[in-house]
Structures
1.
Amino acid sequence: MQRRDFLRSSALFSLIAVTPALAKKDIADHQPTQVLEGDEFDLHIKKTWVHFGDKPVIATTVNDMLPAPTLKWKKGDIVTIHVTNHLDEPTSLHWHGIILPYTMDGVPGVSYPGIMPGERFTYRFKVEQNGTYWYHSHSGFQEQTGLHGAIVIDDDIDADRDYVVGFHDWSDEDPDSIYRKLKLQSGYYNFQKRTVFDFAKEVQQFGFAKALQRRAMWNKMRMDDRDLADVTAYTYTYCINEHTNKNPAYFFFKPGEKVRLRLINQSAMTYFDVRIPGLKMKVVAADGVPVEPVEVDDLRIAVAESYDVLVCPTQEAYTIFAQSIDRYGYVYGILSTSPQKRAPIPKFYPYEPLSMVDMGMAMDGMKMNRMKKKMAHETKIPKTPLPMKKGIAWTMEAKGAMYRLDDPGVGLRSVQRKVLTYADLHTPNLENRFPDREIELHLTGNMERYIWAINGIPYYESKPLQFRYGERLRITFINDTMMNHPMHLHGMWSDIEIADGKILRKHTVNVQPGSKLSMRVNVDATGRWVFHCHLLYHMGGMFREVKVLS
Amino acid sequence: MKKFVVLLLVVTFMFAGGGDIFRYQMLVDQFEASSQGKPSWDASFFMGYDANKIYLYSEGDSQEQENEIVFSHTITPFFDLQIGMEHDTKDKGATFGEITLMGLAPYFIETRTKLLFGEGGVGIDFDFEYETLFTQRLILNSRVESRIFSKDIEKAGIFQGLNDITVGFRLRYEIQREFAPYIGYSITRNFGGLKREEGQVKDRFVVGIRFWF
């Protein structure tokens, strides 16, 4: 071989070398998600090639699966889960919504140091509950790169078929890069911003003066009414289980069968509006806990929430359609009798910008949750003041924030079908003790600078929240931002106050923009826990450690 | 000293865990050529955290430039206070101290208002920008700049009173957020003071690119 040829071939070789297949042989390929059953599990956290977006990319997986294997447990069992970290960075697994001792909760820096590279950590705890849950990494942005899976614990909800429908948002982009871009330009991923033509339309509709006036308030406050999602389908590929729209997920049934769909939102950032045209969904459980069944046409599933729905399909095929809250992307699955049968993909619901209601500024026009009004005046609950800081992480105050449990939320308000709201849900047979005291948490942020906080204080400047063991605590959220925040308290249940003294037991509580929401918590678990917004890129600031004092 | 700096960095990084990440950005807002005159630029670079950053600014062409280095501290949700120095290179050049308010004013008007002091005088520099979206990628940037100074500083081409007003319009197309070619029109009017430029109106069509990384 001549020198010249050698150079050429080595150049060619170096070109090949950067292509995935040859570069790193030790990285395995993506495997379909399996169900693992029993009381002992061996989970290996690794790097794996996956291909959800435009190109093969390395993901963080459990046993080479993305989503991670579905774990099937039995109530009453003591489960043992060995987790081995094959990454070159620390990792962790958190059992979302599972009631367990805090040392098994899996939050690095709080429950334990995390699982170091090459190390094995064994989780062992008793399963005390039934239903649909999920698990995910609590380390850095690993959840975005694939570290999430479903947990199914047997219960007595009767169905002929039982499927996990896990929604998630995949990006080929490095999550660090996504976060940096949001910090540099918070509207980076928003391609539905207001244009002059939108204004022209409003001028046509309302006249110039009125149109100008409508804009004035938003513009004065430097707020964008079209800021519905921080990260959008511009970078995200939405998935159901391990399927994208290119290769949609199938869920098979025989006509007349009762099918249970365990809808879990395992996304990092995406709220989905889910419907199955032609089918009513009967919601039988929320966040794993049975509810008084309610039939709906549409439901919004916040990040980290789960809903179990029963459907009775009679035709040959249906589409499970999940559109992102900002109507920029969607994912669909096929509920069908055979691989040949498909139903048409429905249209997006029309784009709806945020309104004054979402700013917490509309004093009228919205139905108020009647009972709430009464409850507020009823009996005084002693309020424990918390530190607050009206600094750079607090741009807006929702002065007229109201309880809006019966508000379907932006984008679903004009839907002429039954949309699920928290007001429709109620967990039966639960004791609802009157709270001993109350704390107020303002969900705050600065969208311009992409800073998130609670009470104006980001996590790294905060002190732990102090709960007292045995108390019934009332937590009232006031959302002073224009985004939904799914708030998740570890280790204890969150009982949302619904009308007429009823409660809705959940592990993740969605607080709508500019609204107020109260929940009660039985502080029945000692130790160190955390409380945070489940949107991955909000978590850095909207995060608190919780210390339960005995 | 070196140890102290390292310690400071380590501590900053520890506290910055969570949401506040170290970041930097090079933004070349204007890099353009016109029918008359030399290629010119308007660029900035920053590095830092939510509340504290260091900025470098540079604006000008091969003959004259305004270069700044400032420490920027966030004082309100939408505004930063910046303290630093500006060096103008026209003729012999001049150096000023500066205190600047930078941020987003109501109605989404981006502004940098500089108070300059040095060479025996004080001055104010205004810069207002507004962006109009025609589509999600076709964006019109309108900009007004002006300088007022308390006395003549001939070696830096500055004179007493209102120096000039520049109004510019640049229509860019964001192929990506990070990369956008544009065309534009800019008009400058010089007022009083230095005789050679008195009352002169300069206008130019420009073509350029805006990019950042």
Note: Residues 28-156 of chain A form a domain with the Immunoglobulin-like fold (CATH 2.60.40.420).
2.
Amino acid sequence: MTEARRPIPLTLRSGPPGPSAPRRRTRPAIGLSIGIAGILALVGIRLLAPPEAGEALSDSVQDFITLSASVVIESLPFVFLGILVSTAVQLWMPEGFLERRLPRNPFARRALISLLGVLLPVCECGNVPLARGLIQRGLTVGESMTFLLAAPILNPITIITTYQAFGWDDGILVSRILGGFLIANLVGWVYSRHRDPMSLLTPSFAAACAHADTVSGSKPRRAARMFADETSAMLPALFVGSAIAGLIQVAVSRDLLITLGQNPVLSVFALMLLAFVVGICSNVDAFFVLSFGSTFTPGAIVAFLVFGAMIDVKMLALLRTTFRARVLVQLTVIVALASAAIGLAVNLVA
Amino acid sequence: MALTLIGVVVTVWLGVSGQLGLYIHPRYNVFTIVMAVIGGVVALAALALVPLAPGDEDEDEDDHDHDHDGEAVPDAPPRARPRAARRSPGARAVLGASAALAVIAISAFLLLAFPPATLSAQTAVDRDIDRTTADLAGDAPDLTGADPSTFTVKDWALLTAQETDPSAYADVPVELIGFVAPAPGEPDDVFYLARFTVTCCAVDAQPIGVPVYLPDWQERVAVDDWVRVSGTFGANPSTGEGLALIPETVEVTEQPEQPYVY
């Protein structure tokens, strides 16, 4: 840690700059001016846009914009929260703090990691930056996957909303909690057996991990750098993923999915497909699927709640910032098969 | 970074102009706006504190290896993926830069240049309005002691879905505002007066509605029009099953401030 420079407070300081470093004072001012100019430019676009711009669009295009924008606006606060928590964890959590407190046995260790969501109840979009931070702090790739898959389901908010929506009906709540726990630990175990876990990561992220220990600078400065890096990685993925989700929503008729709803086998796959396409946050997806309650079998609902919380279009776009495409395909297949198995089992019992 | 600013500006502007409800459920408003403001402040701080190029921790002179004009500076790939970009050939960096710029430009254009809009009746039809209405979860309001003039489209959809006696609400005056959606099978004498109900954000919007009996309605109102209908519920003359709103007056109106119901 070399103290390169005192952090500059966010006020533009007046007065003559020190003779030793005339550029020191101006650089933050330049960055800040660029940012403020950018904001003003964006607000300008918004204010000057003709109010009838939307008239020219066809209904489907209009709906596509509305749907995509709503996914972005709904996810963005969670992503910010995740990035901020992740930055805080990396900068202010003492070295080895997690590693020391977790049990040595890999199974017990992963089981405990899957419960971390209880302490950090961000939904799945916010978990991605957090998991990236945890990998950089020394968690293995398999363990981070366990966290990624379990946290959206095993957190108080999700459990409460699922209970509000379904109560104890048909074992939906219990199946969701157990299913989420089992799948997360299964995936963690599978990837813990990988010979070279670092090869699962995208080259740029692996490089960032290797580089993580050597970052210097004052804490606020490093925090700023991390925030900049994380938003640069996450936001394009979020925007593109949301656009894909919006596009599919406009293109795929829900009629088709819902006509499949009553068959004990087909309904499971239909709702999983819906979960994949809709990409709703796990904190509230229970209310969404509740509106299909009478159409679908309980097993299908469980499959929706388990699979959708872990994998969907937007989530895959976010995960692609960290994991290689091949890994994501494997991950999707494993989680899908396991969710389907759980859903079918619930239907068998019900 | 540019995307951060776009997201922040969009969110805060929607919040200030009270249109956030077009996208998300009001219970998230405060959280969303607070996080957007925090995100914006941190982004500005990052712009101020982070040197414009990597390896600049010790105040080197020249650090403008990449300088677009305008707001895209902080998003240039050497900043975003310094190490990867360093190792890859120049062509890839150019490709990455143009992709990043394209995403930024398109996002800014779609999110900022078009005014916020509600979902259209096309989506209502697509999402199978009569089925979602029939499946509507929740408890119908209790009529006893309630003031029926406060009932929303959703309340009436619930009530009429559960009621088989056509004269149950014969003496309850109803006034509802919603948009016009064609009824399934597109009959000439019935349309749906519809609203979207939102549980979390517009993605999960479910159309709900009540049938309105108005022969040759297409000559008086167009699909997607917002209408104010007053009348009473009675037996549906069109199908002979279930209840329909028998209107006394139907007038085209402005889209309400809050088009969704929750």
Note: Residues 59-92 of chain A form the longest helix (34 residues).
